[in-house]
Amino acid sequence: MTNSAITASGLRKAYGEQVVLDGVDLEVPAGSVFSLLGPNGAGKTTTVHLLTTLLRLDGGRAAVAGFDVATQTRQVRSAIGVTGQFASVDELLTGRENLQMMVDLQRRARPAAVGELLERFDLQEAADQRVTSYSGGMRRKLDLAMTLVSRPQILFLDEPTTGLDPRSRRTLWQIVRELVGEGMTIFLTTQYLEEADQLADRLAVIDHGRVVAEGTPEQLKRQIPGAHVQLRLAGPEALTSATRVLTDATPDPENLILRVPSDGSVKALRSLLDRLDEYAIEVSEFTVHLPDLDDVFLALTGSAPSAPSAPSAPKASAS
Amino acid sequence: MKNNSVVMLRRNLRHTTRNPVAVFNAILFPVILMLMFVYVFGDAFDVGGDYLDYATPGMLLLAVVYGLSATIMAVNSDMTTGIINRFKVMDVSRGAVLNGHVVATILRTSLAILAVLSVALLLGYRPQASALQGLSAAGVLLLVVTAVSWLSVALGLAAKTAETAAFSGVPLVMLPFFSSAIVPADAMGTGVRQFAEYQPFTSIIESLRGFLAGSPDLTQTWVAIAWSAGIILLSLVWSGRKFSQRA
């Protein structure tokens, strides 16, 4: 059994009548990336605040790096690093001064970390400029660099790429992968399904303060039906005959579309094409649809994700 | 690792020097106000003597309150931008974060007081205080500055948004105008006069005025000290509560 970096059971947090977290259980193995995925207001940031000792639990227990978050606050804090949703950098200081401040404030920090981190995050050129002049991507990088000064065992990233352009997002993903490679445990919250899919070893989907699903991205995708082939027929007659041949398909006469359930395997596709050929049914467009996390999300929470994820391109397409 | 309070203080001092608006509000604006009251309005007020002599202690106090909004805003922005969460997770103590703000405010305000005092001396202000009375005046001022600095920290912590923070400093800036700082309370309308007689700034100014004129008013001085001590105590409790509330 691998040892756990984070274990939480029955996490509860309420503000008066409003219950924000309603019994959340989590288990994050050391050295892995765990993603908490959910729409705005689902309880992601509250979970991070509870696990990082910024908020008090109203119920349940949690241990981070083996220390109880309620009673061993100091030990938990010395093992973790947190980079929040809003870049917590000092705007009036330069990048270098921000990093230096982190070194000055911590016992375990090495002064050499300032130069190393500036280089690693490609911030050398802007190092002596005030953060006010930094782009959003540079701020996030500096923010993360500041968190890494103390070389935390467990890194909490609360929506690290919200509001970033695709390029900066990819840079950040790359950095996260490197950190995992160095043995760091990462707890990442995101509302981008693609991000969880790209980075996470395991993920939990949270909605209205409850975990509605947990597993690897593959397991979650497999949980829901939704793989199908979409056929666009040449005309109404073709649609009628195709519907007669493929009895398990769902027609959409208005758009001349037929949805055929399929696992998307080559074998299944070949046999489908063979049958269409056999009956001389003319198909003008052929698309294979595999479920992505968007479908998972929709199926689990009953609502579309609140933030647009990158449009999922069809996995295969032919005309 | 360095002393956390020192790191925080250095951060706050850097903020002050890099924020021209704060420097203007805290140091130049009181000087401008001073010149305006003495040269533009001064002759219109009958204070029973030289207006410069009457107004200088009040102007020193204006120098104190004008710098406070910078502190309120700075504390508030620390709390709302998330950097405070970073400090909390790093186990930087509440004391270090807040002391940094208070000490930076005291230093900045002292600079403003010196600037206003220098201008007053250039204009011909001649205090009659003995060395001991001068020191007593400085002592009262320092206590008052400490009190309003802590109050500003508490106001900055309590404000939920930058707008509320900006607004919460306004009463502090207005209060000296409704005291005997600019004109004697006797010259005001009934309601305002009663307010002016009992609000803290009047005792503070009368105490300063007494010391600087060489005729100390001990009663007002004790009242001023009591007000300051009360404000410090209240602000400490209030900011302690607000600091731990926010995550």
From TrEMBL, chain A:
GO terms for biological process: daunorubicin transport; doxorubicin transport; response to antibiotic. This is ATP-binding cassette domain-containing protein. SMART domains: AAA. SUPFAM superfamilies: P-loop containing nucleoside triphosphate hydrolases. Residues 6-233 form the ABC transporter domain. Coiled coil: none annotated. One of its GO terms (molecular function) is ATP binding. NCBIfam families: drrA. It comes from the Bacteria. It comes from Kineosporia babensis. GO terms for cellular component: plasma membrane.
UniProtKB/TrEMBL annotation, chain B:
It holds the Pfam family ABC2_membrane. It is found in: Cell membrane; Membrane. One of its GO terms (molecular function) is ABC-type transporter activity. PROSITE patterns: ABC_TM2 (PS51012). InterPro entries: ABC2_TM, ABC2_TM_bact-type, ABC_2_transport, Nod_factor_ABC_transporter. The chain crosses the membrane at residues 21-42, 54-75, 96-123, 135-158, 165-185, 221-239. The keyword Metal-binding does not apply. It comes from the Bacteria. Keywords: Antibiotic resistance, Cell membrane, Membrane, Transmembrane, Transmembrane helix, Transport. Residues 21-246 form the ABC transmembrane type-2 domain. One of its GO terms (cellular component) is ATP-binding cassette (ABC) transporter complex. Belongs to the ABC-2 integral membrane protein family. This is Transport permease protein. It comes from Kineosporia babensis.
